[in-house]
Design brief:
Blueprint (H helix, E strand, L loop, with lengths): L14 E8 L9 E6 L2 E6 L4 H12 L3 E2 L3 H12 L2 H16 L3 E8 L2 H4 L22 E6 L9 E3 L3 E7 L4 H16 L3 E6 L4 H11 L3 E5 L2 E3 L5 E3 L5 E2 H8 L7 E4 L8 E2 L2 H9 L6 E5 L5 H16 L4 H15 L6 E5 L7 E3 L54 E5 L6 E5 L27 E6 L6 H8 L3 H8 L12 E6 L22 E8 L4 H12 L5 E4 L1 H6 L1 H9 L3 E4 L12 H19 L6 E2 L8 H9 L3 E2 L9 H10 L1 H4 L3 E5 L2 H16 L3 E3 L1 H5 L1
Parallel strand pairs: 1-5, 5-6, 6-17, 7-18, 8-9, 8-10, 10-14, 14-16, 23-24, 23-28, 23-29, 24-25, 26-27
Antiparallel strand pairs: 1-2, 2-3, 4-15, 11-12, 12-13, 16-17, 19-20, 21-22
GO cellular component, one term: membrane
Organism: Roseiflexus castenholzii (strain DSM 13941 / HLO8)
Keywords: Hydrolase, Metal-binding
């Protein structure tokens, strides 16, 4: 018999993806199922018992749920999913793959949050001869992760570095993992570094020092009452902060979240939600335990999985090996949930090895004080832009719960339907390729700029004549009709072409649009990534609303296609500085450069100038900074409410729409923003306020 230290990796074969999209529910409460493989497709409908839908709903909104017999749930899911059309296509695809020397991968894309919470890894068919794809190398079962381009396989000239982190009280989980990994450690395939009683700062330090290939987190994940995900380390770690910590871990390819310990009789959605958030272009695969297991069982699974990865096995087959080991212990195989980005296969490519580093198991890393990142990630309907290089059948959605969902029975169909209350879940949609943009109308070269507040009875012609400007140029810069009456107190950016009288000027940012417009401005500060930007654009498009996007120049340089998409869909693009500094801390020359460089970059990329709208990063300004911004042709804008204050602002707006009229809402480029938007738009419209761009709200 071959010893554990002499294990070999599973043979790598070509993979044929059998993609199954489940949901979302339609208006009648029906749940469509669409299967695709090699250009062929089958369509069916999912019919689940109300008790199963209720189970998923309770797992999302009431925490972990006890399940008397999980295999029974798996059989019910298998019968509901693999109807005759889907089963026929699957068998045909399996025969075709076998004839070509390939294997299938069953990839689930579940677009309804209540359904995504169910334990699909336990699904099975048959009674005498039971077919369980999670235990089959020829039908490896995975869930579709975020649609990004995964990194190439990482060349591995040294042992696979596993960084194991445990929250206070869970050091025994690390001991169990070390025992299970001993054969791989002795064979110099794996190098284990352990951090017991970890805090966010020690985790950050460990990621920098150890440069792990695999992160193993033995810590509870909690879905808080205000819909945030937190890891129960020594000092709670918000899931959004974990994403930030992992962003610089260049060699990290897999993260495993074991959650708390349990007897596999509970369904816990929190680790799965957290794992879904982690996938990006650098981290293509995550494993989360949807049903908590005892520490020894979790360690047994992880050790077999990591050992296979160290030998170059594809991640789906490495997980299958671990699941088979759990099946030998009992009905545990469906606990690990593997989520992968499209085209993710072999994570590590072994090469001739270097010697392993001297190791010391459970070596505590020194504590380093770190500033805690305190921005809460409010759970919403998370949307992701499909990669333009992938065909339609390779478009996957991340399944994350919306903030609030209630279920009702629809009398006409007998199937449950979701009612968003108050914020709805958005089905993902492809972002169209931006069409070529028309060139802007050229303006005369001004000798300078100023800002003028309109007095009662003033006209554009009169303002232009007095200040040394041009009527058409003022109208074009401020996106207004040259013949329309001017609203008193409105601030106008004025291009100057010859000396004239002094303008009324501006000493602080504008905080409100036209209080009699019946409109509210939706504005977005964008400086982080493009994924959330596309999600926000999708949300606006679905509600047929336009917004104003304040972008940084550096962001536009990193994501030029995303900047073009903003303009191509009819939204406004505005200036948010080049590097997002505190304007109270930089000199006048620095302020001018921040504005000019951003406008130059945006103009080159999109064909549009960012004038006249500007927002100070962090809302930080001085009177001197306002004057510098005005001199560059911009009007600075503040806000009526930002992300955290918007819910309370909306409550007051519903009670008193006139108070909210002309308001300016500030949202940031975060996943939660896309989830919030439909509810914000719907509530504004319900009280007669139309959400729109900043320019429209200012008229």
């Amino acid at each position: 018999m071959r010893s554990a230290s002499d294990r070999t990796a599973i043979k790598t074969m070509p993979v044929v993806v059998f993609h199954i999209a489940i949901g979302p529910l339609d208006d009648d409460g029906r749940c469509p199922v669409r299967a695709r493989v090699n250009g062929r497709a089958a369509v069916s409908e999912l019919h689940l018992a109300g008790s199963l839908f209720d189970l998923g709903h309770q797992a999302l909104h009431a925490g972990a749920q006890r399940i008397a017999n999980i295999p029974d749930v798996g059989r019910a899911l298998g019968r509901a999913l693999f109807t005759l059309p889907i089963r026929t296509l699957l068998l045909d695809a399996a025969r075709s793959a076998a004839a070509d020397g390939a294997r299938l991968q069953v990839r689930l894309q579940i677009n309804t949050p209540e359904l995504a919470a169910l334990p699909w890894e336990y699904l099975s068919l048959g009674s005498t001869h039971v077919w369980t794809p999670a235990l089959r190398a020829d039908y490896a079962l995975v869930r579709a992760g975020r649609c990004v381009s995964p990194p190439q396989s990482l060349p591995l000239r040294e042992p696979l570095r596993v960084l194991a982190i445990a929250s206070p009280g869970n050091a025994h989980c690390l001991d169990a993992l070390e025992r299970a990994l001993t054969p791989g450690i002795r064979a110099a395939r794996i190098d284990l570094r352990s951090v017991p009683d970890a805090s966010p700062s020690t985790l950050q330090r460990a990621l920098v020092e150890e440069m792990p290939h695999v992160l193993h987190l033995a810590a509870r994940v909690v879905l808080t009452p205000d819909r945030r995900l937190e890891l129960d380390l020594s000092g709670a770690l918000d899931a959004g902060d974990l994403v930030d910590l992992l962003a610089d871990a260049a060699n990290l390819r897999l993260a495993t979240l074991t959650g708390g310990e349990g007897d596999r009789r509970a369904l816990d959605i929190a680790p799965m939600l957290c794992a879904a958030l982690l996938i990006d272009e650098r981290l293509p695969a995550t494993i989360a335990f949807g049903t908590p297991l005892p520490a020894d069982h979790t360690a047994r699974f992880a050790a077999l999985c990591y050992d296979q990865l160290a030998m170059g096995a594809p991640v789906d087959l490495a997980v299958t090996v671990g699941r088979v080991a759990l099946a030998r212990i009992g009905d545990l195989w469906g606990a690990p949930v593997l989520r992968v980005a499209p085209d993710t296969g072999v994570l590590f490519q072994p090469l001739p090895r270097r010697a392993a580093r001297p190791r010391s198991a459970n070596r505590p890393l020194p504590f380093v004080a770190a500033t805690a990142v305190g921005v809460a990630l409010i759970l919403g309907g998370y949307l992701f832009r499909p990669s333009p290089s992938l065909p339609p059948e390779a478009t996957y959605a991340r399944q994350v719960t919306p903030p609030t969902v209630r279920v009702r029975e629809t009398p006409t169909s007998g199937h449950p339907s979701i009612l968003a209350a108050p914020l709805s879940f958005i089905a993902p949609s492809a972002t169209p390729t931006p069409s070529p943009l028309p060139s802007p109308t050229p303006l005369p070269a001004p000798i300078g700029y100023t800002v003028h507040r309109v007095a009662a009875g003033e006209t554009l012609d009169g303002i232009a004549a007095r200040l040394g400007s041009d009527t058409a140029a003022i109208a074009a810069l401020n996106a207004i009709d040259a013949d329309a009456p001017l609203r008193p107190e409105r601030a106008l950016a004025i291009p100057l072409f010859h000396p004239g009288e002094a303008a009324s000027g501006l000493t602080e940012p504008v905080r409100r649009g036209n209080p009699a417009s019946g409109k509210v401005a939706l504005t977005f500060d964008i400086e982080i990534d493009d994924t959330t930007l596309y999600a926000i654009l999708d949300a606006l498009r679905q509600r047929q609303v336009k917004g104003t996007f304040f972008v940084t120049g550096n962001w536009v340089k990193r994501f030029p296609d995303a900047a073009r998409a903003i303009v191509a869909e009819g939204n406004e693009i505005a200036n948010h500085s080049l590097t997002h500094p505190y304007f109270s801390r930089i000199g006048l020359d620095g302020m001018a450069n921040e504005l000019r460089e951003t406008d130059r970059i945006v103009l080159e990329v999109t064909g549009r100038s960012t004038r006249p709208h500007f927002r100070f990063p962090y809302g930080d300004y001085t009177a001197q900074a306002v004057a510098a911004v005005v001199a560059e042709g911009y009007i600075p804008y503040h806000w009526s409410a930002d992300d955290r204050a918007i819910p309370a602002w909306l409550d007051r707006a519903v009670a008193d729409p006139a108070w909210a009229d002309g308001g300016i809402l500030l949202m940031h480029g975060r996943s939660s923003t896309a989830g919030m938007l439909p509810g914000i738009i719907d509530r504004l419209r319900a009280v007669g306020l139309e959400p729109t761009t900043l320019s429209e709200t200012l008229r």
